[in-house]
């Protein structure tokens, strides 16, 4: 059995993303089409092989997420600093358009702490942000001296009292699958299972899938969405200034 905090792995067949093309905050342009396919049809047999889901990575034995859906459920790809690199229309419908955010702020940790719409979207924001900061510290530990990480941490330390308090605790926590409870301003109460998958041999890139319980109100709501009204999906293929940002003083 896998360790309690392990991340499910998705093995990409095609050997994409050579190390020479990797950036922290963008998807290599040559792979844009592949990434768009991945977030539109997450984990279809044409794109990747998903190993049998460990018990620790499954919140329910009733389903496996993201297999051949006519209307895809929310999916996004993040880099090792948790910058959002790609997202689909369903993700826009629930979490807003990452493409509308300024460079440097298309980031999960920043969004959790600094976006009022995300704060009101979560039914238990305090518990969720506490978990988020501890998970980020665990994953970011090897990279805290890098300029891009220093820049993000320094900004949050300056602007967010909650971040200062939580970061000072030095709590660490592995990323897990689970249930996400949302209070959406137009779609109402939603409950989604979420799972994380490492992408091929890219230790810093992961795919997050959100799937409703079959037969639930959430599934009905998501399947009824006019996803064309939320387009277009996004794939970031340009390196941002953060790749070469000057180091600043960040909290330890």
Could you characterize the architecture of this molecule?
The model is unreliable at 1-26, 42-70 and 238-250 (pLDDT under 50). Helix content is 29%, strand content 19%. The two termini are 34 Å apart. Helix 6 (147-159) packs across helix 7 (161-169). With 252 residues, it is an alpha+beta fold. The chain has eight helices and eight strands; from the N terminus they run βαβββααααααβββαβ. Strands 1, 2, 3, 4, 5, 6, 7 and 8 form an eight-stranded mixed β-sheet that branches.
Furnish the topology, listing elements before pairings.
Layout: E1 8-12, H1 32-40, E2 48-50, E3 75-78, E4 84-87, H2 89-95, H3 108-114, H4 116-121, H5 125-140, H6 147-159, H7 161-169, E5 178-184, E6 188-199, E7 202-212, H8 217-223, E8 234-235
Parallel strand pairs: 1-6
Antiparallel strand pairs: 1-2, 3-4, 3-7, 4-8, 5-6, 6-7
Helix pairs in contact: 6-7
Short description:
The protein is of the alpha+beta class.
- Poorly predicted runs are 1-26, 42-70, 238-250
Helix-strand category: alpha+beta
Number of strands: 8
Helical content class: 25-40%
Q: N-to-C terminal Cα separation, in Å?
A: 34 Å
Q: Number of helix segments?
A: 8
**Gross geometry:** globular
Oligomeric state of shown chains:
single chain
Mean pLDDT over all positions: 73
Q: Biggest β-sheet, characterized?
A: 8 strands, mixed
Estimated radius of gyration: 17 Å
Q: What's the SSE pattern?
A: EHEEEHHHHHHEEEHE
Range of strand content: 15-25%
